[in-house]
Amino acid sequence: MSRLQTDSELEAYLDEALTPGEMSEIESAMRDEPEVAQRLMAIISRRDAGMHTVGEIWRRHRVSCPTRAQLGSHLLNAASKEEVDYIKFHLEEVGCRLCAANLKDLERQQAETEATVATRREKYFQSSAGYLGSDNKE
Amino acid sequence: MAASSETDRLLIQRIRGGDSDAWGDLISKYEGRLLAFVESRLTNRAASEDIVQEAFIGFLNSLPNFDGRRSLESYLFSICAYKLTDHLRREGRRPSIPLSASSDSSGQWQLPGNARAASSIARSGERRQLEENSIVEALQDQVTRWRERGDWTKLKCTELLFVRGWANKDVATKLDITEQQVANFKFDFIARMRTIIRRLGLSEEVFPEIYEE
What we know:
The complex is a heterodimer. Chain A is an all-alpha fold. Chain A folds into 2 domains: 1-63, no CATH class; 65-130. Helices cover 67% and strands 0% of the residues of chain A. Chain A has helices at 7-14, 20-32, 34-48, 54-60, 68-75, 81-92, 97-111, 114-128. In chain A, α5 crosses α7. Chain A is globular. Chain B is an all-alpha fold. Chain B is built from 9 helices and no strands. Chain B has helices at 6-16, 20-42, 45-62, 72-90, 125-149, 152-163, 168-175, 179-199, 208-211. At the A-B interface, α1, α2, α3, α4 and α6 of A face α2, α3, α4, α5 and α6 of B.
């Protein structure tokens, strides 16, 4: 039996906002423990009824997320001790997936070749540009 | 984090006008972080790129409904999360949650200590948005104040209590403070939230955790 997830963690699961490990843990728990699915249903019902929770609002609006510039400073070892300490806490203890993605992207920018990135961006552009509004298309 | 930067607002304005250069700029600015987000779950580069691609198309399709005051980055992440969830369901990795109500009443959400059913206080989406925005503003003010004062422990404590939903004793252990300190921080935070909710004339019923005894 897996550890008991908090309601806040289950809310985050519904928003695909937990760390990959925690997401897999809940998916596994859903298969083995019917009460996990029931708790998720209860959260969905509560959301449908328009109830708020502080955690949900906090996470959705990224109330305490460091900025990308702060994450960049952290990578360059240019952030203050307090900022570094908080960023680590936010990534490791809170498990903010969006900040982790930003940090990963910043790390990759130093490693990926320009050609690789350009090819990928071109692919995205070519596959989507046809959906641009047609009023002033260039 | 700021809701939406001026740069992003201008970018959106140009994209709404059909400017393909602006669209290319948006892709360049955001694709890397979206790919990192998806790839952390899939560990398959080609499939991850396909999902990001679908997310960009989804963004353009939803652009007429996009509220420019909202954070563009958060909006793109939410589309990506939706596409990723869909992909994981199709692959059988993410179990579906049954939508039918359970016969077991524990599966239904109720106001704590109150016989009134949640559905009886359902209200308009606009009202809900207004409530949410008011709380966001209050939370942002609070977090800014903690940061300026160097109250990092209060910030971490509140985040673990409300964002992670941890119990007081677990928070105390993690932050190496006493349970009494955690209880005090929690009490102060809840008191402040209640004051704001009352001052803004918002309904107490829709913030159940703030009014739990």
